[in-house]
Amino acid sequence: MAERRKFAKKYCKYSAMKLDYIDYKNGELLKISMSERGKIMPRRLTGTSKRFQEQVENAIKRARHMALVPYIVNTNDLADAAYARR
What domains, with CATH codes, occur in the chain? Predict the structure, then answer.
């Protein structure tokens, strides 16, 4: 039989940082849960707990509304991270 692959257990990075609240103004913290195209990453990929995933989603949506994070990223120049451009 084929040998089972062992993957590292996913953990919540926000719980490990011992945060109480995720603020929409902290772009460095939000980029953990965003793809390079600016999309919100799901829990199953990031390992974020349910509590923090809900806070991250609300914070990213607020940051987009305040124009701190882009809604759409130009796919022609994806070399830079979407949230790093200003």
Answer: 13-77 (4.10.640.10)
Report which of 77, 70, 85, 84 is spatially closest to residue 38, judged by C-alpha positions.
70
CA distance 20 to 64: 22
- Where do we find the tokens 């940082």? 17
Backbone φ, ψ for residue 6 (5° rounding): -110, 120
pTM of the predicted structure, to 2 decimals = 0.77
Residue listed under structure tokens 């799901």 = 42
Identify the residue with better confidence: 73 or 62: 62
**Cα 10 to Cα 70: distance, rounded to the nearest angstrom:** 28
